[in-house]
Structures are given as C-alpha cells and as structure tokens.
Please model this.
Amino acid sequence: MNVVIIGSGVIGSVVAEQLFAANIGNITMLEAGPSIPMADASNWFNVINGGQPPYENCYDTPEDFTATADKPSDMWNIVGGRIIGRGGSTLHWGGWLPRFQPEDFLYKTNTGQGLDWPYTYTDLEPYYCQAENFLGVAGDSTDQNPWRSKPYPYPAAKYPLLMEPVITALDALNVSYCHMPVSRYGKGAVDRTPCMTIGTCKYCPISGRYTGDQSVDKLQQLQNDFTLILNAPALEVKMESRSKAQSVTYMNIITGQKVSIEADLVFVCAGALETPKILQNSCSGGWNNGVGNDNDLVGRYLMASPYFYANGDLSENPEQIESELGFPSLASRAFDTVEYQKSGGKFYFNADYATPNLMSLRPWQMVIKRTTL
Amino acid sequence: MEDNQAAVTIDYPSLWTIFTFIRTNWGTNDNVGEKQFELILNYRIELNSVYTNYYQETVTEFNLLQQKYGDQQSALKMLFQENQQPTPKITNIANYVLKEFFTMNVAFGGFKAIGYKNYRAWMGGGNFNQNPPPYRTAQVNISNKQGAKS
Model:
C-alpha cells in the first residue's frame, strides 16, 4: 500500500510510526519547507550572541496572509506562530504540556454554550499517557489534578530560586500552584539526550527536549520504506471515490513543477491552516466542494487559546535572581476549575521571567538591581 | 567558508589575549580554554564568513594601539575603552567582537563571580533531575501545593 503523509510535524511523524508498527506499506512524507539545522554548534553560538535561530527563516511573513478585525489588537497574527520546515512547529515550542481538565470536554453540559467534545477525559486519558511518553515530559506524578493513571516519564524540576517570590506571593493569596509539565528529557533518558539545563531553550544545542526533527531523523534512520520530500507543499488530494484516495499533487518549489504521486491512503497532517486549505482544494471523487466539506464547514470556526500577561517589579534583587533553570517550572490551576468554567471563564497560568538578562545589557552596565517576575 | 577567504589567517593568539583581558578586569573566571575559544571563533566564521573581517579588523586595531601606546596592557585598555562607548570608535569591533567576547565570558563560567550556579548557555551544569540540582532552588516551604487547599 502506498501511503502519503502531508506534513512532517509531530502529528505526521506519530502517524508514520504507528503505520510502520502496523506494517502498512511504503510511506512518502511531503514537507512544504526545507530542512533546518537543529542542535548545530554554529547556529547555537549565533543564538547565544543575540542572533536568530535558523528556523525563523521559515516563519510566515505579513504578506503571506490577510486578516481583518474590528480592532487592530484583535487581528489574527500568525507571524512567528508556526514553522514551515522539516519537523514543523515543535522546532520552536516551549514544550509546555498541561492536560485539559475533565470539565473542558463538557462545555455544553456545564455552561449551556458551545459543544461538548465527542469523548470524555476518561476516554482520552490513556492517550495522554502515551503522548507524554512520546514527548518526554517531566512532571509531578503525584499531582492528580487532573487525575492520571501513569507517571510522567521524568520527574519535575525542583522550583528554582527565581520562584521564591512567586511562591511567597501565592501563599499569601492562598492560591494553589503546581509543577508545570514540560517536555524536557530527564536524567537517565534512553535514546535521548538528557536536558543539561543550558537555558537556551529556543535553540537547544543538544536536543534536550522534543522537537519534530528528532522523529523525522528516527524515521529516516530506521525505516527503509520511508521517503521524505522537502520543499514540496501539497496542493490537492485526488480522490477516486468518496472513500478512496488516488494521488496527491504537490509543487516542487525548487523546479516550479507540479508533481503527482500515487496514494492509496493519505493523511493530511498539515496544521490548522494548511489542512483545511488542502481539503477545500481537493474536489474530486464525488467531493464537489472539497473533501469533508459538503456542509461548507471545513476551515471555518478556527479557534485559539487567548493569553495575557501580568507583570510585577521587585524594587531590589538582593539574591541576584536569574533564570538559572532556563525554563518555566511553576504553574497554577487555581482558576482552572469547573466552578470558574460555570461562572464565566477559567484560565491556567504559569510563572515566567523577563529580566534581568545579562546578555541584553551592555558590559559596563552589568549591575543587577531589579528583576521582573 | 568561501574560497576567496580560505587563505586568510586569523591571529587567534591576539584575539585570545583580548578575550582574557575581560576576565582580568571583571574579576570573573570563565572556563574557556584557548583551543575551545579558537573553535568558537571558527563556528562564528562558519556561519557567517564576514566574521573573518571582524576578527582581522580587531587584531589590526589592537596592533596599532600597541604601537601607539608602547605596551600591551595600555593597548588593551584603550581597545575596550574606545569601543565600549555609546558611539564606539569602530562599530564592528564593538558589536561583533568585544560584545560577543563579553557574552562568551559570562556564558562559559564568568557568571559564577556574580553568585549564580547556572546561566544561559552554560554547558557544564547537569540535568535538572540530578541531586543537588545544577541551579539554585527555592528554599521556602512548599506548602500550598495544588489540591492542598480548596
């Protein structure tokens, strides 16, 4: 069987791994972007010295899309939000991996608005465990909010000194907190390089957390029946009938030629924006309005999680607090409960850091007096 | 590296002298050895060959200052002084050489002089799960864990 997977991100790789485990034929993976050097010494030194990581060359540009909104601040912006390249957007993610709460699957039931999910937290829980193992999550396995059936693959990092003022403040406010689950490979990691707390997480020199290129590397190293085609944005899935694919057409952006490859089975794993575009453009085999789009709903009602920041300044910094751990470690679900859901809104928050950062200062100004938490 | 720059020789010893002047004057003690330092400079050149010019420019200026002031220490002092101002004498030296040398000094061990146990880009620490952790940890009583209070 000829299988085509559109997209080399984390979802495409998971699908490929599962298909190989089930011994299902040859797999061709199409990636719209180029290969991006990861864990590369030259690029790492560039980042240390204030340069940009190489994947930023694969961001969208403002000219790539249009958006409208009542207020400029409400405008949908995808610049810097995704990476079009080998391995996909996890090349630049923070690795934050809190699970949804059980009530998040019951929005209609609890609020009378929107929809419930077609399955419950209990249905999904075993797959959360699998995903956490796949992604190498470090977390507090004693934390049962939400409940979990298996431990995290790695223990959580102890709270750094940076979190002392935050913990003191949360205690004073009687706001509970917890370890934030993050993709960071812990001590004793097998077939992975343990995180060395280097702190340049936006470009790790040793691949100490999950990034999508690692899965593609593994597929290319271990599977003879795997072919990756780069610089090949998919344009259309040609359908033989409403239930059977025939081929996939992509653009070779090096030559400018359109190329079609046979496909018995197609997985469209191209992200929230590209997947509906490809499906809408696939009008054949009885899908006159695009695959799955008989009701003109494909690509509509795109939703994202809004976020906001709250800052506080300390007037002095006698402990010379700095982000010595390098990634966020403390979060709170105090406002992420069914009660807040019912009363109008809930949110999850984590404590991060902004300054000081010695590298952003001029050398002769290297005196740390303040910190922002 | 491009072919037309393959024959260019970098005066690594002079650049090493400039780099080590930072630890002397800041009272820091970075963990970079001369060979490692040379390797790092090569990584910079590998990504962007224009760094060859920046390094040559720096050594040329350093040599001129030595001729002018007659001794190495005075030349080093002037090199940093003239290029650490809001309007540096030679922008390339200030931005792409000295500033990066300062960063390297901090990242590769110099931060210890400030009291830190770990810092961004420090490779000598260890995994966050090791005991004790390779960074300063919160010492306050962790009493308000999730679920402990309603």
In short: Chain A touches chain B through 60 residues (CB under 8 Å). The longest strand of chain A covers residues 244-252. Chain A has a mean pLDDT of 92.
